[in-house]
Amino acid sequence: MKHVLSALVQDQPGVLVRVAGMFTRRGFNIESLAVGRTHIDGYSRMTVVVSGDHSVVEQVIKQLRKILEVVSVQLLSDSPSVTRGMALLKVNAGERRSEVLKLAEVFRANVVDISEPTVTLEITGDDEKIRAFTELMAPFGIAEMVSTGQIGLKRGSATIYQFRECGYYEQNVL
Amino acid sequence: MRLSGAAIIVECLKEQGVDTVFGYPGGAILPLYDALLAAPILHVLTAHEQGAAHAADGYARASGKVGVCIATSGPGATNLVTGLAAAFMDSVPVVAITGQVPTSLLGRDAFQEVDITGITMPITKHNFIVKDVKRLAEILRYAFKIASSGRPGPVLVDVPRDVQTAHAEFTPAVPSEESNAPVPAAQAQALAQAAAAISQAERPLIVVGGGAVTAGASREIRTLAEKCRIPVVSTLMGLGAFPASHELFLGMTGMHGSKPANNAVHAADVIIAVGSRFSDRVTGDRQRYTQGKILIHIDVDPAEIHKNVDTHLGLVGNTPAIIAELAAACKAKNLAGWQAMLEKWRNEASFVYREDTLNAPWIMRHIAAQTADGSYVYVTDVGQHQMWAAQHLAIEAPRTWLTSGGLGAMGFGLPAAVGAQFGVPDKRVIHFAGDGGFKMTGAELYTAANHDLPIISIIINNNCLGMIRQLQHVFFDRRYTACALKPVDFTAFAGAFGIKAMVASSPDEFAQAFALALKTTGPVVIVANIATDDLVTPMTVPGTGVNQFVSIP
Question: How far is A47 from chain B (nearest CA, A)?
Fold first, then answer.
């Protein structure tokens, strides 16, 4: 089973290594990990997709909370939430360019570059949508592809800041 | 006031009440050594940086204070690694300060440069590299707080050479006292459920782990045990949290646990585990361990609950307070049936101490008897002698039993004994090692001799790596390999440091040597020659039930 976790972290050097290292060391399976800045300086937010049963996720959350730079951890997948990822696909469209473009339109994928033999498409969506689109493009021949990890937020007015157990970095000492 | 980074480090150490540091100098840490020269802090020069790390660890385990070690960049820092890992596995508060190449050379593979924060990330509670002298004081204070609060652990602070020589404004600060957090109200329900489960239990049992020692929960555990007449077993790390001489104590549980203790764990219907992380050496088969029983797990670290075994009730936080509340809420019950079972196992397992030849169980019992009335700290290395000591020394008080439990680092013993002797100078340290482990860090006799430490080192000498030989004996069909050790003249070795050494090959000789050792005031070594083929019993097979004892061929 897949779970989506969101962690608010202090933007310190090495925080990504610390989090990623914890996952490898403890044998947790990460499907994707995305990191980026937030609207508040000095904080980053990580979205992690992990697979495992409920006890695994509970242990992942606890181990994340032990990392000093981790300010707050929120489980997104236990209640309605939005998750999105992005992918860029360079498709060998060749003479079938119009077919590719039609399919892209259906999936609301944007054309970001066109060359003689290829079309480069940008698609945004949840994991399943990106996978479905990738499968549709495969027969045309995918020259190369790159994708981001999933990022997500809870629906409604709830935020990760309401889940903060500790006011600031200094007190987040287990 | 405006101070250099090195002076700021010294000021921060003084602020934290540090009186002793263990270290080894090198180029990148020399500014700090220069500042230490005038400081009211004793610097103990060890023979090797690993010794400094283990010594800081032993100092912390014995005294309850934060241990401090110092090393230079590169090899100095990497030599700390085993010591930091040992402290991490056993949750010991240590602050390691390492020198680093100047910030301008970082990442250029400079002379004696290693990424020590990268290397020690998984074996420290946290670590820092300080690139701005203005943040140095704040980070050091924070390092001490992290090391000592909650579940303690080692913290490494890497300080580049130019940060030690740069200047910054320093404002003295008094470290804030740890407040004893009350039991969170959210746990009231779990606490009531736990108290009900204990009150209704037919076969309750308390398991004390290292966390019980660290949390200082001995008194509360004793109150709970005595009020409800609950028997107590201890893990290797928990020894001393509950007095071994107490009528409710059943001994050590685990791979080399006593039969009464392991049988009790298997048969119990309610287990109250205090500060144990349920290591594989304690549980054997993790699934089987909790089958058919209610497990109440009390720990300061929430991540320990459900980590290794399925817990029914987890109580997290201030351990003594939780146990005190449990004790107040629990009702005593007639446990005559349970007590009769335990009594039967106890009688079946009564140990016969052989006196015909010198053997480790007899040595341990002899030392326990000879030192029962005094203030002693017992420090072991790792291997057969460690298990014999755990089984037969009968540890009475917390922080008087120091052993590398989690990491199982051979070579831990002597440097940890050195650190412990500095940490509790009013107690005398008795150190045990095998001939194998003693050869690893025996050079720390140099440190013991330099400071005329009254450590009694007992080398249980069987001319082999005993635990390796035992595992090969039991699990590899007696195909002994790489475990035979050529005899070493340990008296000559000790003599090289100016330390008196005696050899004992019979119980009489040992008794004489030990009596003499007790009369000496400085370091002394006793080489106790025992048979090569002595085995540690009882023994369970790793990964099986705790009551599945091996019959050794």
Answer: 20
